Amino acid sequence: MLGVTLFRLAVTAQDKAFRLVQHSELDSTNGEALARAREGDEGRLWIVANTQTKGRGRNGRAWFSPPGNLYASLLLLGPAPPHKAAELGFVAGVAVAQSLREILRGDQRIKIKWPNDVLHDGAKLCGILLESAMLPDNRLACVVGIGVNCRTHPKDTPYPATDLLMITGRPTAPETVFEKLSASMVHWLAVWAAGTDFDSIRAEWLSLAAGLGARIRVSLPSRTVEGTFHTIDAAGRLIVMQGARPQTVDAGDVFFVQQCMTGTNAVNG
Fold first, then answer.
1. Domains in the chain, CATH or no CATH each
2. Sequence-ordered list of residues with C-beta below 8 angstroms from that of 165, at least 6 positions apart, any chain
3. Integer Cα distance of 203 and 123 in angstroms
4. Are 254 and 266 in contact (CB under 8 A)?
5. For the chain, which terminal residue's Cβ has fewer other Cβ atoms within 10 angstroms, N or C?
6. What is the value of pTM for the model shown?
7. DSSP secondary structure string for all residues of 3-62
């Protein structure tokens, strides 16, 4: 039986006035963060839970939330102009990937799948969900939800998944991951500088990108785009080359074509 997990913020996060609230169980850390924003919380608030009963991922998918993994959401109030807020997903992806590389002693197999899933050797290790709400005072509340598979991962998914225990062969406590993550988020939020330096985030993201230069398939609501993953543009949109013709994708599920050809389901989340 797992004991009670006690989380703490990194010193650098405390120095920047970030706060932390911990729960043994919540419906959803993102839902709790948004509720607190509507109740008047000023942001820079981390919500963590040992378990979630209604955890969610992108596109309304359920998020597997047993004890032993990390479930954390960061509430930020007016972190950037509204048209720049979506960039937070890329900031978070870089912060998570770099903190996991630190935990795994520089393991270069940690990569980011567009837009912001974090993989290890092609298998999903972490999911990120960005949500927002406009408050009555016209401030934008942004919540970055982060789920890291520390001890377990779902077994019945249509895509590869993994966890830190499987990768290292030894337990990695969610509180250890959270402390590293809270420091990494402070750093990369400062680099992003409220949306004024997405160029630096984009460059770092591309250095961590999974499948860059390889063939991918992107599932859209009404069609599928297949081609070479060329880059992301200045707004974070995916650029897929079909011969000499670029296709711009705002949102979609990315599949790695090579994985599909070898009989392994692509990461999709």
1. 11-207 (3.30.930.10), 215-261 (2.30.30)
2. 150, 151, 152, 171, 172
3. 23
4. yes
5. N
6. 0.91
7. --------HHHHHTT-EEEEEEEES-HHHHHHHHHHTT--S-EEEEEEEESS-B-GGG-B
Q: Under 8 Å CB-to-CB from 210, ≥6 apart: which residues?
A: 111, 112, 113, 114, 119, 122, 256
Distance CA 189, CA 186 (A): 5
From the number of C-beta atoms within 10 Å of its C-beta (0-12, 13-18, 19+), residue 170 rates as: exposed
- Residue 63 exposure: Cα atoms within 13 Å on the Cβ side: 33
pLDDT band, very low/low/confident/very high, at 155 (cuts 50, 70, 90): confident
